[in-house]
Amino acid sequence: MRIALLTGASSGLGREIALRVRARFPEVEEIWLVARRAERLEALAGELGNARAVSADITGERGLGALSALIAKERPEIALLVNNAGCGFLGAFDKSVPAEQERMVALNCLALTSVTRLALPYMPAGARILNIASIAAFVPNANMAVYSATKSYVLAFSRALGLELKPRGIAVTAVCPGPMDTEFLRVGRIAGNSKTFRTLPYCDSARVAEGALRAAARGRSVWTPRAFYKFYRVVAHVLPKAWLMPLAKT
Ligand SMILES: NC(=O)c1ccc[n+]([C@@H]2O[C@H](COP(=O)([O-])OP(=O)(O)OC[C@H]3O[C@@H](n4cnc5c(N)ncnc54)[C@H](OP(=O)(O)O)[C@@H]3O)[C@@H](O)[C@H]2O)c1
To answer: Is 37 in the pocket of ligand 1 (CB under 6 A)?
Structure first.
């Protein structure tokens, strides 16, 4: 059985990716939808057909263990792995809730790393890994210090892993979207509380999903949606971070 394994499929960008996987990866026979909210996953699986709801908290040993056991039992060929689950909390670090800071590292970094390690033995030549980073990976963001650090991790990890996996014929793509109007803004208490998020141009999550899958199919190492953010990426590469950080404060 040839599958796509997709984390964070119950809402936002993950759901949009799930809806478009088959158009871009027709060889995928079943999509495994991973997130915590089972009822949402089951509804989406019903809508998609040939999809399996895998309800698991991938930041916990139990959830990861269950996913690992399922993979070991079914032994699927993983043609596409999408590490999309992520969260970002807004606020000054010294006033932040420690559990929320830890959750960002646990989900955005550790879970992404563990799921990738779990999946790799089942990925054949030609398979693709799609990791969702952010424009926050380009310049450190004050008031989202931990979040931007986690996304720098995703970008750096994706690039290095891509080089390591080249001889196996597996490409790794990091996608770096700007703000999208998803539950992310509510979960992270960003909505209504950040002038920067109010000012920045938004990315449409359906378009990001389509572009991300296209970039993965083509084996691109990094893809940034919207001309505005492509330009930002170049500027962030060229100018000193200290100049840009006051502007990038969230
Ligand atoms: N929205 C933005 O402005 C923005 C901008 C740049 C990058 N991104 C990145 O885009 C990705 C998708 O975010 P989104 O905007 O689509 O946000 P979202 O709608 O909040 O989606 C997050 C997904 O992650 C899942 N998730 C959260 N905790 C989990 C856990 N412990 N175990 C398993 N699944 C978990 C959620 O499902 P359950 O709650 O059901 O578990 C949900 O499906 C993230 O990596 C985010 O950092 C977002």
So the answer is: yes
Residues 106-159 have pLDDT tens digits of: 999 999 999 999 999 999 999 999 999 999 999 999 999 999 999 999 999 999
Average pLDDT over residues 186-205: 95
CA distance 166 to 233: 24
Cβ burial 177-187 (10 Å sphere, 16+ → b, else e)? bbbbeeebbee
Which residues span the domain enclosing 196?
2-244
CATH number at residue 237: 3.40.50.720
Q: Would residue 249 count as lying in a domain?
A: no
Distance of CA 41 to the CA centre of its chain: 17
Residue 90 near ligand 1, beta carbon < 6 Å: no
* Total tally of structural domains belonging to the chain: 1
pTM more than 0.90:
yes
Q: pLDDT per residue over 17-69, tens digit each?
A: 999 999 999 999 999 999 999 999 999 999 999 999 999 999 999 999 999 99
Q: Does 218 contact ligand 1 (Cβ within 6 A)?
A: no
250 part of a folded domain = no
Q: Which residues contact 144 (CB under 8 A, 6 or more apart)?
A: 88, 89, 90, 136, 250
Q: Ligand 1 centre from 43 Cα, in Å? A: 18
* Structural domain includes residue 58: yes
